[in-house]
Amino acid sequence: MKAMPWNWTCLLSHLLMVGMGSSTLLPRQPPPPSQKRSFITFRGEPAEGFNHLVVDERTGHIYLGAVNRIYKLSSDLKVLVTHQTGPDEDNPKCYPPRIVQTCHEPLTTTNNVNKMLLIDYKENRLIACGSLYQGICKLLRLEDLFKLGEPFHKKEHYLSGVNESGSVFGVIVSYSNLDDKLFIATAVDGKPEYFPTISSRKLTKNSEADGMFAYVFHDEFVASMIKIPSDTFTVIPDFDIYYVYGFSSGNFVYFLTLQPEMVSPPGSTTKEQVYTSKLVRLCKEDTAFNSYVEVPIGCERSGVEYRLLQAAYLSKAGAVLARTLGVRPEDDLLFTVFSKGQKRKMKSLDESALCIFILKQINDRIKERLQSCYRGEGTLDLAWLKVKDIPCSSALLTIDDNFCGLDMNAPLGVSEMVRGIPVFTEDRDRMTSVIAYVYKNHSLAFVGTKSGKLKKIRVDGPKDNALQYETVQVVDPGPVLRDMAFSKDHEQLYIMSERQLTRVPVESCGQYRSCSECLGSGDPHCGWCVLHNAKEQQKKRNWTFSQGSHGPLDHMRDTYCLCSDSTST
């Protein structure tokens, strides 16, 4: 029998790897042990901690929010520009802040913790909000971090006095012919009279305009905001809403939260405080916030409840996972990390789970709740807004997928929890962050942990169809912080701890030394090319093989095995 040509051998090896799209072919060999490798790393000043991270999708530049500084870095983590934001004389009791009027409280040198970092692509500026002066924001030019504006003279300019970096989340809604909108969600730290917990603000073209950060709508009765009633704090003195993640999809803006509430354990008449994870949804165009709905979310596997949300990321399903979930490849999925239990927020248990939510299913559940409430069934059921026992009012109207509420039956709570689909659990090293994307029809999740490791997980379906194909020690000490980001070309992943920012390749195909090890890893980025009397030249790195040699093949970003007869080179 005639020997198979070398180029066909190479092609077949790749096709065998790609053919593993079926969940039945998911490799089952254990991942290689966690490896300590050298990565490009940036460390700031010893006294400062890192808080937030964003990557410019157009240039690949990185913006890093830290205590007292904002950095602009190149894609290989070289410092391009530094902008100092603090420290300064302040006192959290000064409201309005001392830069507006004299404050009689004692002032001390206070750090400026970066609490929100957003790129406003339309106006080529960075929105950087800190903890100084009740949470005012700077608008910085992307090119050189030159300060374009720093509104501070109105109460709308004070976003939050909370000193935690993970307490504020913002989502920009963009328009082609109008000023953009900024949805801001923030913990209020016991000061509901000063700060709304959610609001929508104007993003004016002029960074120094008087209307910058003004409420989208405001009259004496209604405004584009939700405030926590002060009465709530008499029931739960330390009540607050902690915002973990936010995004927009379709006609809606969503925030994922942790909230304390008082519940009675089974068989008991006394109440205890627990934390509940909830998804909040608002219509983008709702200026009166009549569309506010929140629904509890959680996850359960093998009888273990995972209820404390740690991190989340919106991604697409991809063809393989979509097939097992019964959705379309382009449908939105929420990749979430929950820790076990419900009673601790600041000291979560190490047991954690990676869970998937189909966004359409959450929206369908919200629509069902709206329809039942507008039939007059049940109550508004939103305890923290003191409307738990207010009956729903009946109204004859059609409620479709894009219904945005009326000035009745709002705000609304869903009582029944929406359960996510558990795909992976970790019992010892709590998962703390997640990011995901689709590569060659496969959904891949990258998960950071408490000890500073990165887990690479291929998610082809629920139950046993998730494969952890690699674990890498990235930051030391941990934990990995919530913000992670892909490079512009999705070939690198930026991972952050409080003291370092590290760039990690999305794929590590070069570590495999045999065909079985490479294909058995389950990493869809990697294939194996058998070369006979040929040389391979690959886009991202040049590998020259001697006659009859073998080597790993990285297929990232539509690169391919370029084989040619050695006599022609």
UniProtKB/TrEMBL annotation:
This protein is called Plexin-A4-like isoform X1
Query: Where is it localised?
Result: Membrane
Stretch forming the signal peptide: 1-23
Assigned keywords, A-Z: Disulfide bond, Glycoprotein, Membrane, Signal
- The Sema domain sits at 23-506
The protein's matches in InterPro entries, at most eight in alphabetical order, are given as: Plexin, Plexin_repeat, PSI, Semap_dom, Semap_dom_sf, WD40/YVTN_repeat-like_dom_sf
Q: Which Pfam families match?
A: PSI, Sema
Keyword Ribosomal protein attached: no
Question: Which Gene Ontology terms of cellular component type are present?
Answer: plasma membrane; semaphorin receptor complex
- Name the Gene Ontology molecular function terms of this record: semaphorin receptor activity
- Gene3D superfamilies cross-referenced by the UniProt entry: ligand-binding face of the semaphorins, domain 2, YVTN repeat-like/Quinoprotein amine dehydrogenase
Share an example GO biological-process annotation for this protein.
regulation of cell migration
Q: Per the annotation, which location comes first and is thus the protein's main one?
A: membrane
